[in-house]
Amino acid sequence: MGRGAGPVVRDAKKARTRQLLIEHAVALFDEFGFEETTVDEIVAAAGCSQRTFFRHFTCKEDVVFDDLPAQLARFTELLNAVPSTTSSWTAIRDTLRSLTRQFTEQDPELTAVRIRLWMTEPLLYARWTEISMDWERIVTLFLTDRRRHQHSDFDMDAEVVAAAVIAVLRAAWRGEVLHGGKFDDLVAGALELLERGLARI
Question: What is the pTM (predicted TM-score) of this model?
Fold first, then answer.
């Protein structure tokens, strides 16, 4: 084994352990409920220790929202890379569509359960609402920066559009959970609905 193989193997093992914790936790939350499931039950199912769990996550909620910080960072990066010649709405729409498509294609079954938990478990819904404000803030900053030559630092149009974009995600997730729709298609349809009235930005 080469000298550089050690860290690579360790990183792969850590990633696999993290994924196992996520998969077992989500399955337990789905079957028994989020509040009713303990960390002890999660680690027993995953075959590891509490110490290992808290090395990866600070609390139970983090398991369900594991990749959202990275998704938000990627969303910000992609928005900022859009050429200034591209309309603001097109930038937001296409970036959001690209991310939601990737999100749902990575592990469709696990993603569907996670979304259901976000929408049906009160504590997780509250956490998702808190996280969604970060996404709304990024959209608002993007629009405000694009339109700064037209408006003051507070841009009501930007605030309203950003709130509407995040509402699209919430509606799409609820549509998948309550009515069995496909999240990616629901996002696309809802964004098209918004576009009719907002494309002029």
Answer: 0.77
The predicted-structure confidence for 154-173, as pLDDT tens digits, reads as follows 677 788 888 888 887 777 77
Residue indicated by tokens 């919430």: 170
What are the start and end residues of each CATH 1.10.357.10 domain in the chain? 65-198
The CATH T-level fold of domain 65-198 is Tetracycline Repressor; domain 2 (1.10.357)
Q: Where in the chain are all domains bearing CATH 1.10.10.60? A: 5-59
Residue 182: name the closest of 84, 85, 115 by CA. Answer: 115
Mention the CATH class of domain 5-59: mainly alpha
Query: DSSP H helical segments within the chain, as ranges?
Result: 5-32, 39-46, 50-56, 60-64, 68-81, 88-106, 108-120, 122-146, 156-179, 183-198
DSSP secondary structure code for residue 1 in this structure: -
